[in-house]
Every structure is written in C-alpha cells, then in structure tokens.
Amino acid sequence: MKIGIPKEIKSNESRVGMTPAGVFELTKNNHIVFVQTNAGFGSGFFDKDYVAAGATILNTIEEVYASSDMIVKVKEPIEQEYKLIKPDQVVFTYFHFASSEALTNAMIKSNAICIAYETVEEEDGSLPLLIPMSEVAGRMSIQQGAKYLEKPIKGRGVLLGGVPGVPPGKVLVLGAGVVGIQAAKMAAGLGAHVTIMDINMKQLRYVNDVMPNHVVTEFSSEYNIRKRIKESDLIIGGVLIKGAKAPKLITKDMLKIMRPGTVIVDVAVDQGGCFETTKATTHENPTYIIDDVVHYCVANMPGAVPYTSTVALTNVTLPYVLKLVNEGWEKACENNIPLSKGLNIVKGKIVYKEIAEAFNWETEMV
Ligand SMILES: NC(=O)c1ccc[n+]([C@@H]2O[C@H](COP(=O)([O-])OP(=O)(O)OC[C@H]3O[C@@H](n4cnc5c(N)ncnc54)[C@H](O)[C@@H]3O)[C@@H](O)[C@H]2O)c1
C-alpha cells in the first residue's frame, strides 16, 4: 500500500504523523511511504532520516495526497487540505468531528474513510491513542507550573522542591487519571508535597499503592478542595467526565482564599476547564492573572514538545497503521474491535452516531 505523511499546516503544529522508526516498519512490510519534504523538521526528524528508513520524499502536499492510498497525520485536516482528500482514501488522524461541522461536511463530501485516533477504544473503555498526549500534558503541567511560580513571572516565588531548612512547595492535583498521575509523579520527583484528589476510590487506592509517602490521596469534594487550596502553591486540573464538560471544581470566589501568586494549570481546558475562571490560552501567551492567581490554560500542551509527542504518538498509532495497511481497512476493522471504533465517516456516511448527534442531524445519516 502507498502511505503518505504530509507536513502539518495547522498553525503552530510541529508534530508529524510518523517518525522515521515508524516508516522503517512500514517499508520493511513492503509498503511504499511518501513523506513531504521537511514534514518532520519541527519534531527534529530530517528528510535524510526518512530516506534512510526507506521513504520517498515528495516536494508538495498535493503530491503526497495524490500519490497515497492512506494518509497518516496528527491534526484534523484544515480547509486547504479538504480538496486534497480523495474518494476511498483512508485518513488516520485526530479529527474531533463533533467540534467542527465544516470539517464533518467536507469529509462526508470527500467520500474518504476517516478513522479518528480519539475514538479508537479498547474493551475496557480506555482510549489508547489519547493516553500519550495526556501523559505529556500531565508531566508538562508541573514543569510549566514550577516555572510560573517564579517571582519574575508573578508567581509566589516558591521553589517546588524547597532546600535544606526550607519546606518544599505544596501541589494539589485534581483528578487521579492519566494527567493527574503523571503530574503527581513529576511533582513528587521534584520533592514537592503532593495531594491528589479523585472521586474514584479505585484510582485513589492505586495511587496510594504506587506513589511515595509524600504523595497523599484525598477524596475530591468541595469541602476538601476549599481546605487544600488555601495552602497550595500549584494546583493542577486534570479531571474528566467522559463526553461531558469538566465540572467546575474551583469557582471564582475560591480564588480569593488562595495566596497571591498561586499558580493554577488547567489541563482540562479542552473540555471547558475545571476552574470557573479558565479561558483557553496559547503557547505564545500562556498565562493571565485573576485575583493575583496565575492561570495557565494552554489547550494543546503537547504541541510545545513535538519531539516527545511525535515519538509517543507513533509508538501507539503504528500497530494500528500496520493492521490497516497489511490487512486493508475493512478486514482490519472487522478483525479488531478497538480499531473499528475509530471509524467515523466511511465513503460519505457518518458511522459514529455521536457525531450526528452533536449537530442534531437526522439519524438516517448514521
Ligand atoms: N491541555 C492539553 O493539552 C491536554 C492534553 C491532554 C489531555 N487533556 C485533557 O486533560 C483532561 C484529563 O485527561 P485524562 O486523560 O487524565 O483523563 P482520565 O479519564 O484518565 O482521568 C480523569 C480523572 O478525573 C476524575 N474525576 C472526575 N470527576 C472528578 C471530580 N469531581 N473530582 C476529582 N476527580 C474527578 C476521574 O475519576 C478520572 O480519574 C481531559 O479533559 C483531557 O482532554 C488536555
């Protein structure tokens, strides 16, 4: 099969759909891989690395789409790409259809096979192609939070790890899922005192079992949150209720009981945020201050570390890509339930009912 890896053209996106190591696996399986020139540059991969892995470099995005049976990328196609997608072409990427009617209409019109990373779902309900990005964001949240705690950027002027004779900083992590556990692990590694809250006792038991003693678990409730935020230096929001907006665990009035210079990092911003005062920010302008509390609410945190994010993404997408190219998309989806859940739009028809529901479209489209 012919597989195309275009350069991402969405603004500020430096990730790429596949690493040279992933390309190597595909060429080893006798597939032909076309990579657009400089596609990997932002992630630290060069054309010569892809050539060494067996790829052919093409000069333009048009050539990549026109030459390929399947496209593997990162972000949803943007308007300039709509017309490049061909009937029967398989497109494997993050789509997030429910958030764009224009994209949904364009992909219906394309008659392509759109398989969305974000809806590939294991039998236990986990979303394997979203996990690495939550891992990246969870770990980054502490790195960013520690930086914004510094005085020149209006933080409290606290070093998270403390020093001999000075106690460490206090970190409160809301949510003990993928983001929360990775955040707690990083904060603990820096020597901070960490409290992690969840409403799921199973998760709290797990955290309690695997984390060091300076990470303590507490049941998430308004009472407990109000008590902890008074003394926290850094608060991480990593809660998720599947398919719903994030609950507002920290309301505007609560900012008044925090100490000036407290930093809050709302990783859940892409689901509306779990702080009432959250509004999405960008890597160019990541923070704003309300009531002396520094807010960091970047919606695409992994975009800032494209090397790590690209490698982490290829690690999890490659096994599915191999199934799709070795078996063909129909057989691969028949044989693999998690992958079949990734099918969103097939040759002009929506096959994932939540997309039609998101736009209140007639269900006969499904
Ligand atoms: N900003 C970014 O760049 C970025 C990147 C990756 C993920 N995210 C987002 O981060 C959020 C968390 O993702 P995840 O993968 O960790 O999800 P997850 O499902 O693994 O974990 C979420 C946790 O929140 C807990 N929770 C639900 N309600 C709660 C409450 N009231 N109090 C405390 N905990 C509660 C759940 O029990 C669960 O353990 C999601 O919204 C995800 O989209 C953002």
Automatic annotation (TrEMBL):
The keyword DNA-binding does not apply. Signal peptide: none annotated. InterPro entries: Ala_DH (IPR008141), Ala_DH/PNT_CS2 (IPR008143), AlaDH/PNT_N (IPR007886), AlaDH/PNT_NAD(H)-bd (IPR007698), NAD(P)-bd_dom_sf (IPR036291). SUPFAM superfamilies: Formate/glycerate dehydrogenase catalytic domain-like, NAD(P)-binding Rossmann-fold domains. Residues 149-297 form the Alanine dehydrogenase/pyridine nucleotide transhydrogenase NAD(H)-binding domain. Residues 4-137 form the Alanine dehydrogenase/pyridine nucleotide transhydrogenase N-terminal domain. It catalyses: L-alanine + NAD(+) + H2O = pyruvate + NH4(+) + NADH + H(+). The keyword Cell membrane does not apply. This is Alanine dehydrogenase.
